[in-house]
Backbone:
């Protein structure tokens, strides 16, 4: 029962990833894609959490946190790129 | 599962091959990146999939899944990261000095 | 305890890293790097001699017994190559002192050279297939950096091709490793050999072996040498010389090792394929060598020809021909380094790259010019220079085996080599000098000495071939009888 | 045009701290749970990347005056010299030992040479990643 | 069915709820007209989705194995902390890189402040 | 005890010392010192003549590469004695001559170094018993000859002549080397003596015939036999002493030596007989025929040399028939051809040496060698004229000069052979006397041209740059000494026969019992027989032809200049070069995509082809792990993302898609229970994406691929091919389940390495070495990126490194 629910949830997460992928491919603007990528990251976090339950292991809990960190960093990097073209500045203006 | 993954590997390889055959250097670099994705999956698949538990002792019961390919892939990931970083920088340096990112224009002169 | 056999790899690495800290002290960097290479050469002489008395040496890293850990295995073949590589590098370093310039030296030139050598030596010594991959990468990364070092336009342009093709070959290597691991489930070369022998080298394993053939051919420049001419003619002279001497040899070594130790059961398929590839390599290499007027292109295609020649020894696969190939590899490392140094120096002295734009160098630089003559004869296999013995033995092996086509190609190729280099010699070295005395650039001693050293090397290697013969025959014997290697690795725990 | 990064910088301060802690944790726990020198190093590096992203090179250099090339070199040296140590001790190269010592204050402590090795790896990874990013970013 | 099993089931249902939320926000991302509206779907509802499923996982491990995972808690905190910032940055970037608003939008107050020259 | 090895090494040592001596000794011509070398050696060798004549041989060995059976073994017998004496004897005279010929302004140190180098090499060729060592010296003669021809290397013609000579002789040498190696393969030894003893067991060996042909190729190229003769006229660019020494008396005779030396090995075989004698005959005819039309005296002598070499070669061929018939009273008669060959060999060296020196004198004193500018020299150059007459008439085969004797014997041999009843000689044998006779007529004609056009007739001082005058005494000594031999041998031929030729006959016919039987008494007068009639005919018709030269010379015009062998050689080189350039540049396009296509196609063809050809392909999905829905969706996501990369309009989209691929792989690592991998993959993927973004700042947005649709189609086919092959092999590998992996061992990681994370234990301990090197790789990359960005080409640097 529990397992079935979990697998359904996983399938749903995967489904939203697929939809987000559509948005990445389709665009039309860069921020659209960034939003979608961010969403994929978030869905992956959830998926990993569920897979950990399914596989009965705590080994992947680190991955959840890391993915959270990285999704954040990637989003910042991309949005800075979209905004300014440069992602690491020499000297800030202010 | 193996069959599915191998087909995926095939697709990734084909895509990577097509990209690496492009004229644009960024495509070529992306091609190498996809190549490394494909091969990492391949190594893992060749070691057998889902054949045991996570290779952390005490975490679960034996048998564990084959840990050696995982170690190999880890090494391979790091190396391909190093190489990708290098060729990226190489590409933009070449663009800076040669003024083109088109490999057809970067043929070099076999002038005689 | 055989810790000594890791030194040819670890010493250059550690010294290279140390030199990073010594970045501002160029003189110190020079001395240390040269001393390191001389030290490695001495160590490899010691290793070589110990192998003769004690048999194959092996070192299990971390004390993990094969096949579980990684190990280094030093047999005569690898020790000979390590020795030659170290000597050639040391000599090239001397050339670098007065040629490469302070800008490069400050930009970690010496560390990169040392890393390159470390990778090369590691590839020669390792007994583990995945570790071979890693050693390759050490070597390749260093070579990528060295190809681009200086950032000239041609360097950047050619290095893209070089890097991408090598990435591809590394990818093929990983694919091949994945397949091999999927079939035999182990990575230790001796253990793989044992398992392959146990299961029989069926069609699938042969397929995998062909994949390995492609991988190493890409590295060795066997047939798939497209990266070679460009990337060997772009970088500074000394780097080109090191490439010419070392890089392809690693691929050749790997081919020899895998196809004598592991995949030796189906010679009618694999070795014939190697033979065909070697034959075509010889032909197209010869064509390339006469097609260009750029002296560096000619030198590069000479590398290709030599690759074909050496691989004939493997394709034939008799003990005699293997022995010949080993002689030839050693000879080629020295002679090719010399050729590239000479050619590069010519370009620096004259300021042009094509031989028909140079003339009469012999009047300005007599000793230099004679050295060019020596290397011409040496590469053409004219006795008693070093190329001769290898050529004879390869020919002998091939004739014994009835591979007459390969014999013909091999020997015709040496005439073409002669022709291609003679053209340079007659046009650039001989003839009226076109350099007026005031334009004449002085030839620095620092450039001449390494060339002369290599010249002495190739002459004495020919005259004193007997000194090498016991080592070489031991090496060939080990290659020919894989069980010696396997026993040394898998049985008895030292 | 000035772009105000106040929100980002404020959050970053907290987040970087979390990441650094987590990185160290990953590095230390690697021997028994997922993690280790590589991953620890990479995570630490990503913390630095985040710093550079949210701020700028100059101000980070001011508060953290490190030459990351040297950090990397030191890391490699550390990793290789653990192997070299075994050379001196006359055991096979790269022999790692682990032992439990009864130290007067800490009690029973596990000491492994692998940890030193991994520390070298981690330092090298941090150094290299940051060097790469800085080199590119500093380019005009 | 004992208590712990019920709680486990509850946790599973929490996760299912999360996944449904995620699908909804996914639909939002394809159905909504422009990036500004889509980012609502992405950042708000999918943050909710991940919080739900992480909490579910946390509860499950707690109940099932008696294991209080600091990492999961940390993860929850982290997502909670960073998701708004990320959303903010993306939309700001979008606006500054002049991504068009949907035609339905009636008012653009920021425009005069940021791009007076576009008038 | 005098060792022959020493005789070989001695010139080399002196050759190395000459440059140093030259720097010290300024006041006197260095040639005087150098001359001592051949004189010493000549005396040392001459002292051994009596013992060699009595059938003694000398044998010394010095280990060089004993493990490969390559030793510096020398063997002094009758045959090598002849050559040894010629080399040192003529060598002494040539050096003497050169002292006056070459002024001290020339770079004498080089000249004499090369000459001594050549001398040593030549002695090495004739004295070596070990085939490999023989080959060593053989190539050294080519090399030293190359250096001597190119002595005046500022002249283009010199360089080209040198190149041609080197290429042809070295190619022949290489062929010969292969022949030698084959001999070793057959007989197991490199020693000529041992091969001679054992060769009878191998005449049916498959390699026997190829070996013979290859060895002959070496001999023919060296001895300038048809059609390899073309290098010899060009080699005349060398200083005249060199031409006299190398290209008439010694080096070109190395081929003769080789054939003589190998007659006991291969002689007796039909192929050997026909090829040696027919090629010799053709060479003889072609050489003499072409010599007639040469306006340059030296070229005339060059073609004459070719012709004479052909004569000697054909005689050796004819003589080899005796070995086929075997030792009997009847077969002795055929050995006389060989005897004549050796005899003529000596004679030729004497008169041709003298003639070359005459040309040298004319050239040196008058500044030209063109017969059209010469004439009437005899009154002002009486000594030179005398020498020319003696040499010329000897070459023409007139008494009282040694050439007459050997020419008569040559005619005798050709007549004799046409009576033999093996090798279907009854039918074809008659060609030999006819060709020999015709060739001799031309020989007679060019001899007359040489003497008359140069020395007789009206003088043409107006065409000369210098006044006509006699050469200095020093230049005349050497040719006069040679003339003395020319005459002396005619009167006392038996002295030569007994001491020199008889022991060498024993070397050529080792199985033929007492060599005395093989040594005839040589008489100038032997009655009116066929050969005398032939000689008379030669004189009559030759004189007639010379008289009518103007009338029939247009015959030469019939031979189109397009189809000469020289043109053939040149066009071969240039078309090879052109063809190579076209082919090489055709595939070496410099375009990365092309190279990659080659590689991929090779991969598909070999790996894919073999997979199907060998039937290794197999597929079995029954053992697969189960598939969950979400996994399938994720696989689909990855596939779609990957394919979408191909069509991405902007680079960022593609990069993001690559990021999606990376993240999805991480999730697969999770599904496949690889936590460490998942962590690493996630971080690395993010950092890589960040790097892409960083670098995009410096790179332009990508444009649409502008390749032609054909290229795109090829790319697509290749891509799919690669994907399919990788896939199929992977399927087959998956089914290959013969071995347990070694990783079960690592499951004891905790006990072994003190770690519970197996992957980490492998990375840190079991395979810590990999990790160490991997860190080094990373480090190199980081440092490399740093240098690549910081170290740039200086703008002002000329881009010569291109």
Residues:
């Amino acid at each position: 029962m529990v397992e079935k629910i979990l697998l359904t949830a996983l399938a749903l997460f995967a489904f939203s990833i697929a939809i987000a992928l559509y948005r990445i491919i389709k665009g039309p603007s860069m921020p659209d894609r960034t939003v979608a990528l961010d969403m994929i990251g978030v869905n992956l976090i959830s998926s990993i959490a569920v897979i950990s339950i399914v596989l009965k292991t705590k080994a992947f809990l680190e991955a959840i946190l890391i993915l959270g960190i990285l999704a954040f960093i990637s989003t910042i990097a991309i949005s800075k790129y979209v905004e300014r073209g440069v992602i690491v500045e020499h000297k800030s203006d202010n | 599962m193996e069959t599915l993954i191998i087909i995926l590997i095939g697709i990734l390889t084909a895509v990577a091959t097509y990209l690496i055959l492009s004229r644009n250097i960024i495509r070529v670099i992306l091609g190498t990146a996809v190549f490394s994705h494909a091969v990492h999956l391949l190594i893992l698949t060749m070691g057998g999939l889902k054949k045991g538990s996570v290779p952390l002792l005490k975490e679960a019961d034996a048998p564990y899944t084959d840990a050696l390919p995982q170690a190999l892939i880890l090494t391979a990931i790091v190396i391909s990261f190093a190489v990708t970083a290098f060729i990226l920088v190489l590409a933009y340096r070449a663009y800076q000095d040669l003024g083109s990112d088109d490999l057809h224009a970067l043929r070099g002169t076999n002038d005689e | 305890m055989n810790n000594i056999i890791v030194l040819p790899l670890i010493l250059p690495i550690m010294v290279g890293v140390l030199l990073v800290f010594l970045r501002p002290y160029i003189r110190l960097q020079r001395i240390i790097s040269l001393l390191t290479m001389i030290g490695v050469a001495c160590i490899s002489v010691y290793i070589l001699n110990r192998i003769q008395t004690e048999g194959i040496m092996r070192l299990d890293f971390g004390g993990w017994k094969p096949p579980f850990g990684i190990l280094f295995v030093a047999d005569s073949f690898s020790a000979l190559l390590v020795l030659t590589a170290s000597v050639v590098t040391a000599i090239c370093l001397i050339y670098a002192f007065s040629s490469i310039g302070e800008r490069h030296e400050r930009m970690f030139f010496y560390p990169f050279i040392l890393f390159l050598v470390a990778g090369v030596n590691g590839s020669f010594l390792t007994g583990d297939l995945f570790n071979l991959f890693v050693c390759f990468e050490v070597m390749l990364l260093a070579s990528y950096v060295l190809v681009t070092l200086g950032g000239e336009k041609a360097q950047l342009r050619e290095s893209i091709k070089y890097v991408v093709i090598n990435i591809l070959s590394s990818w093929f290597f990983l694919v091949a490793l994945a397949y091999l691991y999927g079939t035999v489930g182990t990575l230790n070369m001796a253990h793989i050999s044992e398992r392959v022998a146990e299961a029989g080298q069926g069609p699938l394993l042969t397929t995998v072996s062909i994949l390995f053939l492609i991988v190493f051919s890409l590295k060795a420049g066997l047939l798939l040498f497209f990266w070679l001419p460009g990337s060997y003619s772009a970088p500074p002279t000394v780097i080109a010389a090191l490439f010419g001497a070392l890089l392809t040899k690693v691929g050749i070594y790997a081919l020899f090792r895998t196809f004598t130790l592991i995949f030796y059961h189906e010679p009618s398929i694999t070795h014939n394929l190697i033979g065909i590839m070697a034959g075509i390599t010889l032909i197209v290499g010869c064509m390339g060598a006469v097609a260009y007027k750029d002296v560096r292109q000619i030198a590069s295609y000479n590398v290709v020809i030599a690759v074909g020649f050496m691989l004939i020894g493997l394709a034939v696969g008799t003990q005699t021909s293997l022995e010949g190939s080993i002689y030839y590899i050693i000879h080629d490392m020295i002679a090719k380094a010399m050729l590239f140094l000479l050619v590069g120096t010519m370009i620096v002295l004259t300021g042009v790259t094509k031989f028909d734009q140079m003339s009469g160098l012999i009047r300005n630089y007599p000793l230099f010019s004679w050295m060019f003559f020596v290397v011409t004869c040496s590469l053409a296999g004219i006795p008693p220079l070093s190329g001769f013995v290898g050529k004879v033995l390869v020919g002998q092996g091939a004739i014994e085996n009835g591979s007459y086509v390969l014999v013909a190609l091999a020997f015709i190729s040496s005439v073409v080599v002669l022709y291609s280099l003679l053209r340079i010699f007659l046009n650039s070295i001989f003839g009226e000098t076109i350099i007026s005395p005031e334009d004449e650039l002085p030839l620095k001693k620092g450039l001449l000495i390494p060339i002369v050293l290599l010249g002495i090397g190739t002459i004495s290697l020919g005259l004193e071939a007997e000194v090498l013969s016991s080592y070489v025959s031991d090496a060939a014997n080990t290659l020919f009888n894989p069980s010696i290697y396997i026993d040394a690795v898998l049985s008895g725990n030292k | 045009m000035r772009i105000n990064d106040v929100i980002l910088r404020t959050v970053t301060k907290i987040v970087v701290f979390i990441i650094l802690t987590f990185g160290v944790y990953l590095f230390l726990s690697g021997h028994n749970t997922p993690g280790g020198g590589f991953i620890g190093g990479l995570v630490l590096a990503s913390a630095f990347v985040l710093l550079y992203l949210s701020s700028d090179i100059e101000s980070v250099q001011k508060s953290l005056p490190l030459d990351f090339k040297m950090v990397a070199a030191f890391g490699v040296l550390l990793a290789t010299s653990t192997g070299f140590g075994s050379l001196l001790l006359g055991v096979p190269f790269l022999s790692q030992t682990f032992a439990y010592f009864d130290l007067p204050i800490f009690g029973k402590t596990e000491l492994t040479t692998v940890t030193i090795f991994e520390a070298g790896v981690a330092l090298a990874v941090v150094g290299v990643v940051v060097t790469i990013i800085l080199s590119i970013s500093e380019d005009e | 069915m004992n208590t712990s099993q019920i709680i486990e089931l509850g946790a599973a249902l929490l996760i299912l709820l999360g996944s449904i939320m995620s699908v909804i926000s996914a639909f939002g991302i394809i159905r909504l007209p422009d990036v500004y509206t889509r980012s609502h779907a992405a950042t708000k509802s999918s943050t909710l989705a991940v919080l739900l499923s992480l909490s579910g996982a946390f509860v499950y491990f707690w109940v099932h194995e008696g294991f209080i995972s600091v990492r999961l808690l940390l993860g929850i905190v982290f997502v909670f902390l960073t998701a708004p910032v990320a959303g903010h940055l993306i939309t700001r970037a979008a606006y500054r890189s002049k991504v068009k608003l949907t035609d339905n939008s009636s008012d653009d107050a920021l425009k005069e402040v940021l791009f007076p020259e576009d008038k | 005890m005098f060792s022959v090895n020493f005789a070989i090494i001695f010139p080399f040592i002196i050759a190395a010392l000459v440059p140093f001596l030259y720097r010290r000794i300024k006041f006197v011509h260095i040639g005087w010192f150098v001359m001592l070398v051949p004189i010493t050696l000549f005396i040392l060798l001459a002292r051994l003549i009596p013992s060699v004549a009595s059938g003694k041989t000398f044998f010394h060995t010095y280990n060089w590469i004993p493990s490969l059976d390559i030793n510096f073994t020398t063997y002094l017998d009758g045959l090598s004695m002849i050559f040894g004496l010629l080399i040192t004897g003529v060598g002494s005279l040539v050096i003497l001559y050169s002292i006056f010929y070459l002024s001290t302004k020339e770079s004498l140190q080089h000249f004499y170094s090369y000459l001594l180098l050549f001398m040593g090499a030549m002695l090495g060729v004739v004295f070596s018993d070990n085939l490999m060592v023989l080959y060593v010296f053989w190539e050294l003669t080519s090399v030293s000859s190359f250096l001597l021809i190119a002595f005046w290397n500022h002249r283009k013609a010199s360089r080209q002549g040198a190149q041609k000579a080197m290429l042809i002789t070295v190619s022949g040498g290489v062929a010969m080397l292969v022949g030698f190696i084959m001999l070793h393969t057959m007989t197991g030894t490199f020693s000529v003596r041992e091969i001679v003893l054992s060769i009878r067991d191998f005449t049916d060996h498959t390699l026997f015939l190829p070996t013979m042909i290859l060895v002959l190729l070496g001999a023919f190229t060296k001895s300038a036999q048809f059609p390899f003769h073309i290098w010899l006229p060009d080699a005349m660019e060398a200083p005249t002493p060199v031409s006299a020494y190398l290209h008439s008396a010694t080096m070109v005779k190395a081929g003769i030596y080789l054939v003589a030396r190998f007659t006991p090995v291969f002689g007796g075989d039909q192929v050997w007989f026909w090829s040696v004698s027919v090629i010799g005959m053709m060479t003889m005819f072609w050489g003499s025929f072409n010599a007639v039309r040469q306006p340059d005296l030296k070229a005339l002598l060059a073609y004459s040399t070719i012709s004479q070499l052909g004569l000697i070669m054909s005689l050796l061929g004819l003589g080899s028939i005796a070995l086929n018939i075997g030792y009997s009273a009847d077969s002795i008669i055929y050995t006389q051809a060989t005897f004549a060959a050796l005899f003529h060999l000596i004679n030729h060296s004497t008169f041709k040496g003298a003639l070359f020196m005459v040309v040298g004198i004319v050239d040196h004193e008058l500044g030209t060698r063109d017969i059209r500018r010469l004439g009437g020299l005899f009154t002002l150059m009486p000594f030179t004229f005398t020498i020319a007459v003696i040499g010329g008439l000897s070459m023409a085969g007139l008494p009282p000069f040694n050439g007459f004797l050997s020419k008569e014997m040559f005619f005798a041999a050709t007549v004799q052979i046409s009576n033999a009843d093996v090798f279907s000689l009854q039918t074809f044998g008659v060609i030999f006397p006819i060709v020999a006779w015709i060739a001799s007529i031309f020989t007679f004609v060019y001899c007359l041209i040489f003497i008359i056009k140069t020395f007789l007739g009206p003088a043409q001082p107006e065409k000369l740059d210098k006044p006509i005058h006699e050469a200095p005494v020093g230049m005349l000594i050497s040719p006069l000494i040679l003339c003395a031999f020319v005459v002396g041998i005619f009167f006392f031929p038996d002295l030569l026969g007994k001491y020199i030729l008889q022991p060498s006959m024993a070397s050529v016919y080792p199985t033929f019992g007492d060599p005395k039987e093989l040594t005839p008494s040589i008489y100038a007068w032997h009655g009116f027989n066929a050969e005398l009639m032939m000689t008379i005919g030669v004189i009559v018709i030759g004189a007639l032809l010379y008289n009518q030269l103007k009338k029939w010379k247009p015959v030469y015009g019939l031979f189109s200049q397009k189809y000469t062998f020289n043109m053939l050689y040149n066009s071969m080189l240039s078309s090879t070069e052109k063809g190579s350039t076209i082919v090489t540049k055709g595939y070496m396009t410099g375009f990365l995509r092309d190279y990659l296509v080659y590689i991929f196609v090779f991969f598909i063809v070999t790996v894919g082809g073999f997979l199907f050809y060998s039937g290794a392909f197999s597929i079995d999905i029954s053992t697969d792990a189960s598939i969950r829905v979400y996994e399938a969706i994720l696989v689909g996501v990855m596939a779609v993302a990957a394919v979408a990369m191909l069509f991405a309009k902007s680079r960022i989209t593609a990069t993001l898609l690559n990021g999606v691929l990376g993240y999805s792989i991480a999730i697969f690592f999770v599904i496949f229970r690889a936590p460490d991998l998942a962590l690493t993959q996630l971080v690395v993927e993010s950092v890589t994406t960040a790097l892409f973004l960083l670098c995009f700042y410096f790179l332009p947005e990508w444009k649409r691929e502008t390749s032609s649709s054909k290229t795109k189609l090829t790319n697509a086919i290749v891509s799919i091919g690669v994907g399919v092959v990788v896939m199929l092999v992977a399927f087959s590998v998956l089914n290959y389940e013969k071995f347990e992996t070694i990783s079960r061992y690592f499951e004891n990681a905790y006990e072994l390495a003190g770690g519970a994370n197996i992957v980490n234990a492998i990375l840190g301990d079991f395979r810590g070495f990999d990790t160490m090197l991997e860190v080094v790789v990373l480090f190199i990359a980081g440092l490399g990126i740093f240098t690549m960005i910081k170290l740039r080409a200086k703008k002002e640097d000329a881009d010569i490194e291109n």
